[in-house]
Amino acid sequence: GQNIDQPTEMTATEGAIVQINCTYQTSGFNGLFWYQQHAGEAPTFLSYNVLDGLEEKGRFSSFLSRSKGYSYLLLKELQMKDSASYLCAVMDSNYQLIWGAGTKLIIKP
Amino acid sequence: GAVVSQHPSWVICKSGTSVKIECRSLDFQATTMFWYRQFPKQSLMLMATSNEGSKATYEQGVEKDKFLINHASLTLSTLTVTSAHPEDSSFYICSARDGQGAQETQYFGPGTRLLVL
Is there a contact between A59 and A75 (Cβ–Cβ < 8 Å)? Predict the structure, then answer.
């Protein structure tokens, strides 16, 4: 079966760095997405990785290793507004999105 | 974890036809489901909130007569794109809400690709 795993909840301190991991097992791979979702709002696109390596975009970076079925989202210089759920989703060989359950990130002062 | 399915996965249709997309929560009851539209590498755009047994709430700019939503049961919501045109071609994603308040979790479907010729 297809499966996406990410931690349910993480807590970090304002100004610090946090890494949210995502492991996947899917039938085929056409890219991995990270979204940020604040409560009551639609998911906001953060990143898309289809090749191995690290993609940096401001305070956020996303890493992919296709051979390991692994990705992480790295958030630097954490701000209180970064408190949200972070969703990992993989597009399979049929171009369907397989979603992780999301990681709730709590930022403390 | 909870599973949300969508059917069909792919739709190719002629301009002017209507297309129905189903969203089902497979192992939980969802009083609220959401319909999104996604363009490549962009954020999901919320189209409407579907509440079981009542009318859907549409976001500003979404035509309710064009995108008909029916949430007839606690496990099924349908989105019908009426008189589809090429500009309606997109990736439509639904989600279903499980739980309430702090225990609330939103589960997303795999998406339906619509191509209108």
Answer: yes
Helix, strand, coil tally for chain B in percent (to 5)? 5, 55, 40
Structure tokens at B12: 């190719």
Burial B4-14 (b: 16+ CB within 10 A, else e): bebeeeebebe
**B1 pLDDT band (50/70/90 cuts)?**
low
Let me know if B95 is exposed, middle or buried by CB neighbors in 10 A (0-12, 13-18, 19+): buried
Strand-pair partners of B14:
none
Please state the three-class secondary structure of B42-81 as a single string.
Answer: CCCEEEEEEECCCCCEECCCCCCCCEEEEEEECCEEEEEE
CB A90 within 8 A of CB A32: yes
- Residue B57, Cβ density class (10 Å: 0-12 exposed, 13-18 middle, ≥19 buried): middle
User: What digits encode the pLDDT tens for the residues B7-38?
Assistant: 999 999 999 999 999 999 998 999 899 999 98
Check if A49 contacts B (Cβ < 8 Å). Answer: no
- Contact residues, B window 6-65, toward A, CB-based 8 Å cutoff: 9-10, 34, 36, 41-46
Q: Which residues of B touch A95 (CB under 8 A)?
A: 113
Give dist(CA B108, CA B21) in Å, integer.
14
B31: left (phi over 0), alpha (psi -120 to 50) or beta: alpha
